[in-house]
Every structure is written in C-alpha cells, then in structure tokens.
Specification:
The chain has five helices and no strands. It has two domains: 55 residues, no CATH class; 91 residues, no CATH class. The longest helix is centred in the last third of the chain and has 45 residues. The chain is 72% helix and 0% strand. Helix 1 packs parallel to helix 3 and helix 4 packs across helix 5.
Amino acid sequence: MSCENVRNRISLLLDHRIDGGERDTMVAHLASCDACGARFESLRDMKRVMGKMSQTPVPANVQAKLRALAAHERARQLTRLSRGSRISYWSGRLYMEFENLMRPIALPFAGGVFAALLAFAMLVPNLSFAHHLFNDDPAVGFPTNPDGKVV
C-alpha cells in the first residue's frame, strides 16, 4: 500500500471502519513507514484528547431548528422519489399555506359574526309592532296625530 493511500484512510482506521484484510495491510505499512506511523500516532492522540473534552450542550432552540431543517431536507429528498410523492408533498404544502393564511382571519370573522348576531337578537324585540295601535279605534289612538304631531 502506498503512503498516500494510507494517509487518506488513517481516519477510517481510527474509527474502526476498515475490514480485516485491508486493516492488516495498513497496520503493516504503519509499522514499516516512520512518516505514516507518526501521522497515525498524532491523529490517535488528538482523537483521545478530543474524546476527553467536555461537550457543550446544544441549546434547545438550536436543536429544534436543526431537527426542522433535517425534516424538511428529508421531505424534499422523498419528494424526488416518485410523482405521487411529489403530488402529496405539494398538496400538503398548499393546504398548510391556506391554513396559515386563513387562521388569522378566522377568529376576527367568527367574532364579527357573533357580535352581529348578538346585536340583531337584542334589536329584534324592539322591532316588533303592536298591531292593536293601527286600527281605526280613536280610543286606542295612534302614536301620532293625523297632522303628524307626536302624541
């Protein structure tokens, strides 16, 4: 194995991602080549030191944003699989956009309809007329005189 191939694959060896036969060839090369062996030792020590470092916790809002980005990317990748998945994806997007547009309008609209119905219900009793006032009996009378003056 050449030095260039070994140097390109040292990180795979450190992560135990190389199978048996190739691993044995690389270990033999690292034992015989001082430059590659020193590079391997350096990277192994760096990995060990970095493994002992404390990990800073990721803030919850950053985690949520990263998960949302990953979910959107996964959905985008799935839409490329077939025509049916594309149609499903775009219909879902259109439905969500419609919902997001209508939601701010729905509550004021419902409140306005409720207020109009309430006002109408309060006015209905005042709109009823007493039919006995509109007869020709002068004893009952009209709400106004024939000449137009209010009684």
